[in-house]
Amino acid sequence: MSLRVALIGYGTGGAVFHAPLISSVPGLTLSAVVTSDPVRQEAVRRRHPGAAVLDGADRVWDAASSYDLVVVTTPNRLHVPLASAALEAGLPVVVDKPVAATAGEARSLGALAAERGLLVVPFHNRRWDGDFRTVRGLIAEGRLGDVRRLESRFERWRPEIKPGWKENADPAVAGGVLYDLGSHLIDQAVTLLGRPLRVYAELNTRRAGAVVPDDAFVALTHPGGRISHLWMSAVTPLLGPRFRVLGGDAGHVAYGLDGQEDALRAGRTPLDEGWGISPPESYGVVGTPEHSVPVPTEPGAYQEFYADVARAVRGEATPPVALDDAVTALEVIEAAMRSPREGGVVTLR
Questions:
Q1: pLDDT level of residue 1 (50, 70, 90 thresholds)
Q2: Helices 103-116 and 323-342: crossing angle, nearest 10°?
Q3: pLDDT, tens digit, 9 for 90 and up, residues 101-156
Q4: Taking phi first (over 0 means left), then psi (-120 to 50 degrees means alpha), and beta for anything else, what does residue 176 get?
Q5: In terms of Cα–Cα distance, which of 299, 309, 275, 277 is closest to 22?
Q6: How many whole angstroms separate alpha carbon 305 and alpha carbon 302?
Q7: 3-class DSSP state for residue 309?
Q8: 3-state SS of 202-240?
Q9: Residue 228 pLDDT greater than 90, yes or no
Q10: Which of 63, 97, 268, 315 has the most CB atoms less than 10 A away?
Q11: Residue 349 scores a pLDDT above 90
């Protein structure tokens, strides 16, 4: 039987990512979308005519037996309250990144989930980027030797402020580039190299009128002396490599972002032919100065996140992303925020 999904939120996250991905996975049905905005309500009716349009999350809780899974993709400050309400209603929940504004809030959510015997799955979709899957495969296969340094960038050139909640300085809002782009980069680094031991960060607010960091660098020291250098920025006029991974035997360099987000924004879905395939001209290379070769990029596969969620809800597999991983990422973000204030490296407990 197909799992019935209630999606809460139909901004960029709901409209561009979650609704199309849910609709593309066998065994999942987009049964309802919650949004109070009339324009977004009409957009849901046009693109997902089989989904009920609800004007408030209370209507999901009042009919909880009609659903099997809730997905929360709202402004960050609403993630924990809505996810908690879903658990209280007896429903497992997927929560967009970052799960919470603080690691403590995420732990509390995990405690409630454990008490209720239900799943909370963080939506860290960038683990299914083609370039990240390629890096992960190269490391697993030992093609680079012992990895000594991971360099990872998520950079943009957006020198003008786009009004919205992500530009709000209230800590409860969890705005700024560290929570936005940094959540992805930190999760990927932790996935590849393990929970960091130490964190150093440089946070800057560059754009006129900005009140939250829009340009940041984070350095992580992982077990075994491995190091991650992470750049996240809205004000980079010339972009660096997306990945540069340096090992004892070889390195890997790749430019450009995974194309799945652009494809989703253009109205394509994983059901379309050629989904997630990168053209040869975008391939990264592996090697040394004496010899390097192109490496085909693994296909991007955001849909696999939701296929794995469906299996986890049915009790057939573990969740594709553990809540503990999201807690670790938030601990790193909190340490990165402390680092400039304290003038140095922060040790994680």
A1: confident
A2: 160
A3: 999 999 999 999 999 999 999 999 999 999 999 999 999 999 999 999 999 999 99
A4: left
A5: 309
A6: 6
A7: helix
A8: EEECCCCCCCCCCEEEEEEECHHHCEEEEEEECECCCCC
A9: yes
A10: 97
A11: no
Q: For the chain, give the mean pLDDT.
A: 97
Q: Are 281 and 184 in contact (CB under 8 A)?
A: no
In the three-class reduction of DSSP (H, G, I as helix; E, B as strand; rest coil), residue 148 is classed as strand
Reported as a single tens digit per residue, the pLDDT across 273-293 is 999 999 999 999 999 999 999
8-state DSSP, 189: H
Q: Which two tokens stand for residue 83?
A: 């996810």
**Angle value at C-alpha 59, between 58 and 64, nearest 5 degrees:** 95
Q: Which residue's structure tokens are 């991974």?
A: 245
Name the nearest CA neighbour of 185 among 135, 127, 139, 138: 127
Alpha-carbon distance 306 to 19, whole Å? 11
* CB-CB contact of 78 with 87 (8 Å): no
